[in-house]
Amino acid sequence: MRKTAFSLLMLSASLASVASAATVNQKLPQSYSVNLRATPSGCENNPGPYITLDGDLTLGGLGARIVLTNNAKFTHSASTDVSADVTLIPAGEKFTIAKQPSRGGVGGNPWIYFQFLDGQGGSLCAPIKLGRCVQGLTNASGVFSILTGATCNVSSGDCTNSGGPFITLNGELRLGGLNGRLILTNNAKFTHAASDDVVLDVVLLEDGKSITFAKQPPLGGAGGNPWIYLQFTSGSGSPIGSPILLGRCNQL
Q1: Per DSSP, what are the bridge partners of residue 205?
Q2: How far, in Å, CA of 247 to CA of 252, rounded?
Q3: Are the C-beta atoms of 91 and 61 separated by less than 8 Å?
Q4: Three-state SS for 133?
Q5: Does residue 232 contact residue 64 with C-beta atoms inside 8 Å?
Q6: Peptide bond just before 243 cis, omega within 30 deg
Q7: What distance in Å separates the CA atoms of residue 83 and residue 224, rounded to the nearest whole number?
Q8: How far is CA 164 from CA 58, 68, 136, 154, 221, in A?
Q9: For 148, phi and psi rounded to 5 degrees?
Q10: What is the three-state SS of 170-210?
Q11: Are 231 and 64 in contact (CB under 8 A)?
Q12: Average pLDDT by consecutive 10-residue portion of the chain (252 residues)?
């Protein structure tokens, strides 16, 4: 797994000669919008059919907000506070779900179901009926909230300069995994798996996958050795959880 360079927030014109740092580890919800295509072949052959899966996954996005304030309790934003938003995962970023190898199943033109699972195999939805093998299959789609791991190292310097401080972020993002379960059955209602059903699990997005993102433009800041807060946001900018107090600039 590779580390990612988080966006740079420049809150001073000069480079810090002395720097300190704090580390934040969080598990955060990330929205996955998934569209999966299933292509059948050999529907009535023995030991067919064979089902090939491919599609795409779109991320809802994840960001962070750095707030510099002289109010240690930070009950509300003041006119003297400075905040800067950075993009950790761009909204709308897509991943291609690579074609899964064809799998042999039961014969007799079975019904095909698909179920989305999280990275640990937990169910995200009920099985979705795709159709009968010889009649063509519909797509399997859904929107799911999957936990994403974020490690942020926040460094500061030039804390007492009039134009400071200088804040940088670096760290790592680890996307939660997304799996699926393909079910071939001769039971159209599929109330439960029977001994003659075929159940195949596939990995759509591996657990712990990391991604990179572009640097943000510089931003002017406020002096006075402020308190520094970090708050995660959704791709649309909505806050996720409460602001996290990292400490005073020279005490990180």
Answers
A1: 178
A2: 6
A3: yes
A4: helix
A5: yes
A6: no
A7: 15
A8: 38, 10, 63, 15, 6
A9: -115, 135
A10: EEEEEECCEEEEEEEECCCCCCCCCCCCEEEEEEEECCCEC
A11: yes
A12: 36 35 90 94 74 93 86 68 82 87 68 93 94 90 94 79 73 89 82 73 91 49 77 92 88 77
State the Cα–Cα distance between residues 206 and 177, nearest whole angstrom: 5
Going by the DSSP 8-state scheme, the letter that residue 134 receives in this structure is: G
What does the pLDDT read at residue 162? 67
Query: Which residue's entry shows tokens 């936990």?
Result: 147
Q: Quickly tell me which residue has 């093998």 as its tokens.
A: 133
Measured at the CA of 38, the angle between CA 92 and CA 208, to 5 degrees, comes to 45
User: What's at 142, amino acid-wise?
Assistant: G
Q: Could you say which DSSP state residue 237 is in?
A: S
Angle subtended at Cα 73 by Cα 72 and Cα 79, rounded to the nearest 5 degrees: 75
CA distance 87 to 62: 6
Tokens of 176: 């939660």
Contact 207, 176 (CB under 8 A): yes
Contact 58, 33 (CB under 8 A): yes
**What per-residue confidence (pLDDT) applies to 31?**
95
Residue for token pair 């640097």: 215
Would you mind telling me the total number of residues written for the chain in this entry? 252
| Structure token digits, residue 62 | 């994840």
As given in the structure block, the two tokens for residue 210 are 């990391």
The strand ranges marked E within 60-93 are 62-69, 82-89
DSSP structural state of residue 220: -
- For residue 145, give the amino acid letter: S
The two tokens of residue 249 are 């600039």
